[in-house]
Amino acid sequence: MRDRDLLDQRVLLQLPVRRVDCLCCGRVTERIDWLEPASRLTQRLRVWLEGLLQLLPISHVSRLTGLHWHTLKTLDKRRLEASVGAFEPGEVRRLVMDEFALHKGHRYATVIMDAERTRVLWVGHGNSREAIRPFFELLGEHCQQIEAVAMDMNTAFDLEVKQHCPQAEVVYDLFHVLARYGRDVIDRIRVDQANLLRQDKPARKVVKQSRWLLLRNRENLKEGQAVQLQELLAANQPLATVYVLKDALKEVWYAPSVREADQGDQAHGLRLPGLGLFLAENQGRLPRKRRDELFLTSQRRPPGMASHKKL
What we know:
Number of helices: 13
Number of strands: 9
């Protein structure tokens, strides 16, 4: 059996284990306090390995100790089960759901946590409705006390939450909403404006190549790009409007309260076809006040606005 290393030397123990014939229990194997039944690792080694596994990846611990990866993975799972314990949702009221990649090839898992206590409640394989359904079955009657669930724009998450927690508000995270806004609104307006500039090839080239300039946050612009962005927005009113609306969309998430978000700057400007489509496809994903303001903005069309065409 294996014991904890002594400096840089491996320590192996040879221990005779006796089998005893007991009048009450029958034939039994001698119990050793510092060795778990059927284990080849001493308690001292196990405690040391658990400490390493909290600091280093399993592959690194495997190379350091010479133990097999699966042996260490099993040990780490037992440690996590002992430390985390059974499923105890407590008085959870707000949930956070997210998916993460396990390996290359679109293999995902889902993690669900208590937003107020920042405590992981459940982790499962997959990101479909069937994959996350066991969590709500474990939650049982506690589903009725869920007030809000934060998630990305995964339709499976949305539908499953509405089925088990119909009273809960679904909150989409800012990153995915802005990404959707960039694809459905900013890109569409950029294409329309480029199509209007077919006779002015230098200007059309500038608009066509401005995609990442418009999507990137101001604080992430490289040297010289801030000036390019300012010149582009000054020369093109529709692009300036959707860019300002992108900042207004962020304010909804960063507002200290719902009241302050409702009292934010009134969106105004031009009718933009991409904005109307974005609002129609994302009903319920924006606060009602902001959605109404953006909708009013989308009703005024500037003269000469072209229909959407791919570049």
